[in-house]
Write a structure and sequence with these properties.
Strand order of the largest sheet: 1-10-9-8-7-6-5-2
Number of helices: 27
CATH topology of the largest domain: TIM Barrel
CATH class of the largest domain: Alpha Beta
Number of strands: 21
Helix content: 40-55%
Radius of gyration: 26 Å
Strand content: 5-15%
Amino acid sequence: MTKSSVLGYPRIGANREWKKALEAFWSGKLEESEFLKQLQEIRIAHLCKQQEQGIDYIPVGDFSYYDQVLDTATMFGIVPKRFPYDGGPVPLSLYYGVARGTKDATASEMTKWFNTNYHYIVPELDGASPVVTENKPLIAYREAKEALGIEGKPVIIGPLTFLKLSKGYKASELDAWIDRLVPLYVQILQELEQEGVAWVQIDEPILVTKVDEKDIERLKSIYGTIAANVPNLNIMMQTYFESVDYYQEIVALPVKGIGLDFVHGLAGNLESIKTNGFPSDKVLGAGVIDGRGIWKASLRGKLDLIGELTAIVPADRLIVQTSCSLLHVPVTVQNESKLLPELKEALAFADEKLGEIALLKKAVASGESAVAEELARNSRELQAIEQSGARNRGEIQAAVAAVSKQEPLRSLPFAERHAAQERKWQLPIFPTTTIGSFPQSAEVRKARQSWRKGEWNNEQYNAFIREQIDLWIGLQEEIGLDVLVHGEFERTDMVEFFGEKLAGFAFTEFGWVQSYGSRCVKPPIIFGDVAFEQAMTVEETRYAQSKTARPVKGMLTGPITIMNWSFVRDDITREQIAYQLAYALRQEVEALEQAGIGMIQVDEPAVREGLPLKEKDQAEYLAWSVKAFRMTTCTVQDTTQIHTHMCYCEFHDMIDSIEAMDADVISIETSRSHGELIHSFEENTYKLGIGLGVYDIHSPRVPSVGEMTNMIDRALRVLDPKLFWINPDCGLKTRGSEETIASLRNMVDATRIAREKHTVQV
């Protein structure tokens, strides 16, 4: 009989209970014992939901106190050597110190989990001597069994994926690290086997990326060793986010099950299984329900897909499951009360996806007639959203099609624009600025809530926002920054703010997902054609500029970031969505310029995270992403300086595309990667204006002048001083005012030191 499973469940809770507990604990408002109790209650409640839906293989160990990769590292005692650690189970204070930094040590690097908007903590292997500090999957299994009688499915990140996502070792040392870690995995799995665990899910998503024959040989060795030492444990070797390239080698591994993504990897995985078949001694984990998207599945379509699979794999060796962990979607649609009916009825968040899994299992077991009513309702709901007026705005579609056929180019090349901009702005060498936002204090958040609830009228709220702008314009001038920002106090989120003012967007009340740590975001839903309706940022920016003689940047979020940080419709291509956004944002850029704003920052921090995992698809994505950015910015005057901002990532493979965006100035986060990004510029010349973030805004610590001076000095060894800007890593929205002011003062002091060291003839 076909079974059902889920690869992971959101840890944050329907009302972000997890986030609130973390932040209360960090602030000292919650004792550790009470904190642990609250998280256990959240964890048990999540297991109950899956149990109630009749899920056969419920994941345990997917719950985390911060991040699942950090959990794996600390389970093996892998702690960065700059932190004091004497071995044994890693205490919470050290665990969170590695993630967030301490007074004496910087936090570990944080980067994107494959091509999602989730961030993981990068393990640092340099100097580590791994041992099993505690068997976390076993602890999770016992808890579920004792509390609810659940025979859980422990989830573990696989050895190859863990090492490929780690840093602090040379490529030539990978095999030695495998030899060190695999015995520890064997120890973990043997203890699970002895406990009577039936199935273990070992995640190896690295296999959908660029791997080679040597990696496949490593994989054979890893799982051969595990099979020889843990012969009676059923292992589901799980992949997700794309199709696997070495299909035949992977399905031949000595494991009991192979999990494949039949949503985002549908074409490749389905072709592979049809061409090559599937081993008769294995179970297929068929990821047919989208773990990353928020739209209801076409259940008839999914049953047709399952029919294709069961023609090859008997139903009793098939597990119907999600394509990946449900970590990437909100918890439930049920609490949403303000969405259009046709939109709400077309959505499926985590809890609704559990229901879809259960229904598909029932249909396979009992036939479609057993679920005929549910299938008919599903078809009606999907048809209603497809036929909605919001998705069929012919005038917008025609205008965007016409604009996207044109080549988006500035009227002059960068060198000539730069000369004109220097004459206009007369900035000092190494201009200083920030990325855009300033601290959103409790007072700011309370004011916004009062306005949204109707307790404040527009005049009261606008007066408050202007007071904040006045305060921070004055502070920026006093600190000594050269290019100012208005602070974005009127904005909740850099994507939500724009989505609320553009047509084609919808917003949930409780649709939160985890981005990193306790940072949760509520992605907008792009459900219709996107259109500009009225100026969105002009009023506050123009007001800020009226309060200072120094330039104030207009601040926008770029089309690719808005798209990548939203849940997007699935009836048209992402390229089409990007062009609709670009056309709408171009009209805002033009409105800012007409209002006298001569520096405009169009942020694109999420370009890299949208990069397809398959190398063959990357060039096309980058081409239309660059085109969308240029569509947004190409119509301004030569003296209007276009800035952009990108988050830390591996940029070495897309430097050319970044340069092709043709922004006059780009700022890039670098401090958490400890200057590694600078190495990219040691190997690749960059000819446009650039600012490499000189301090990490994700940590509450105030960096010293010396730290920032060192970062500046290294950058100036490879970048043109005439084109170099100095700025923090990212926006300062989440930081406190005191630490923000102190950090910016140190940054300006470091800039003065740099100016004294470098004399440049302009």
